[in-house]
Design a protein that fits this description.
alpha+beta; eleven-stranded antiparallel beta sheet; ten-stranded antiparallel beta sheet; 9 helices; 23 strands; globular; binds the ligand C=C(O[C@@H]1C=C(C(=O)O)C=C[C@H]1O)C(=O)O
Length: 404
């Protein structure tokens, strides 16, 4: 166990069973991985019996009623389409075989490998790397609106980085690197042909188990310190900072409001600190009991997008995101997770994430903008968040080099 300033989380290590399953992971056209920080589940899905793309909630619910294995995937952030992707506009996969390595439970039968990634004859290199250089300029009018219109409270705006590689990433190597570099987060990978979505997110959207519901507000951020003392000083600063506290409370209050029709919520304590190697966040766990029959899909729909990733008012925030961000988000900042045959399941927010298609990789990170925001500080915060995935990408290139 590792003790953060205020929060204790289980530390995951990769066991030999995980290694054995990952050895075959890249040999399937479709394969999925999901594990949580406490290691209550470590799910691997191989092959597919059915895959749903770009669906409505009604189509998803009807499709899910026919599945007898855990299903995995993501719902897109919003209605904007990513025209080149079979994965980013929403994907839900019923694998041919699923194993929960945390419990030993299995579903379906293990299919024969069905995919051959084009062999690489040389180590992977980055050929080209582009970042957004006009982000602050594009945000200036939004900041002005937030400062002059009291109805507009918050919008989370992100940027994407683009990499061209001289080969294709390996999904299994990516998962190993997620586990190694970000041991205290969720680890998610969805591989579908030449596309791969990976995330080391610290943020739960919803976990539903029988009638017990767990979610969390994660919003308000500050850097890590070089020493324990400096780290704690920064955590203290974050807890006392008026802008970050307001940013966080907006999320807590809105999550509570949206869950009101669905659940009886337990009382919520003051925010704690949640740390990843790059950044610390204000964090409030929110729990409750479902008071009427509800599916995970309904709760996801009620909650997403929370103001941790969208904003308030929500319609204005979504329109602003569509106008200001350079590209559709797809599964970036969107709900990704699994649902078990008994209806229990968990969705997390696909941040600290990458999307790879063929020889390209995109990373995403965003920050909550309020009237009191300093755009230079917000851009620095985005860079901190991006560092997590940049490091994962770079180590993966190194890893693959070692594997040659
Ligand atoms: C948008 C991101 O993170 C979200 C925004 C945060 C903030 O603005 O403080 C904190 C955590 C996340 O809810 C991201 O990591 O890309």
């Amino acid at each position: 166990m590792v003790t953060n300033s205020n929060l204790t989380i289980g530390m995951k290590h990769m066991n030999s069973q995980t290694t054995a399953f990952l050895a075959d992971f890249d040999n399937y056209h479709t394969a999925v991985y999901f594990s949580d920080p406490q290691h209550q589940v470590e799910l691997i899905g191989l092959g597919e019996t059915s895959t749903l793309h770009h669906f409505t909630l009604a189509e998803l619910t009807a499709w899910h009623a026919h599945q007898s294995v855990p299903v995995f995937g993501g719902l897109p952030f919003d209605q904007q389409l990513q025209p080149t992707s079979n994965l980013m506009n929403g994907i839900m996969i019923a694998p041919a075989y699923v194993i929960n390595l945390a419990s030993g439970e299995e579903w379906g039968t293990r299919p024969a490998p069905d995919y051959k990634q084009s062999p690489r004859t040389h180590p992977l290199h980055i050929l080209n790397h582009t970042t957004e250089t006009d982000w602050q300029a594009r945000l200036q009018p939004v900041l002005h609106t937030l400062q002059t219109d009291p109805q507009k409270q918050k919008v989370v705006l992100g940027m994407q980085e683009h990499f061209d590689l001289d080969g294709q990433l390996s999904a299994s190597q990516l998962i190993k690197t997620l586990i190694r570099q970000q041991p205290q987060t969720y680890h998610v990978a969805i591989k579908h042909g030449d596309e791969l979505f990976g995330s080391a997110t610290p943020e739960r959207l919803v976990k539903l188990n029988q009638n017990q519901l767990e979610t969390a507000a994660v919003a308000g951020s500050i850097a890590r310190g070089q020493t324990d003392k400096a780290d704690q000083k920064l955590a203290h600063e974050l807890q006392r900072d008026a802008k970050n506290q307001r940013e966080h409370q907006l999320v807590v209050t809105e999550i509570e409001r949206r869950l009101q029709p669905w659940a009886q919520l337990d009382s919520v304590a003051a925010p704690e600190i949640l740390t990843t190697p790059q950044i610390q966040h204000l964090y409030t766990p929110i729990t409750g009991t479902i008071k009427q029959t509800a599916s995970v899909w309904q709760i996801v729909q009620a909650l997403h997008p929370t103001p941790a990733l969208g904003g308030l008012p929500v319609d204005w925030a979504l329109a602003t995101i569509a106008n200001v961000e350079s590209q559709p988000r797809g599964l970036f900042a969107a709900p990704v997770g699994y649902v078990m045959p008994d209806g229990s399941g968990e969705f997390v927010i696909g941040i600290r994430s990458l999307w790879s298609k063929d020889h390209t990789v995109n990373l995403f990170a965003g920050a909550g903008i309020l009237a009191a925001s300093d755009l230079t500080a917000e851009e620095r915060e985005i860079q901190l968040k991006t560092t997590a995935m940049e490091n994962i990408l770079k180590e993966q290139l190194d890893d693959e080099r070692h594997d040659q």
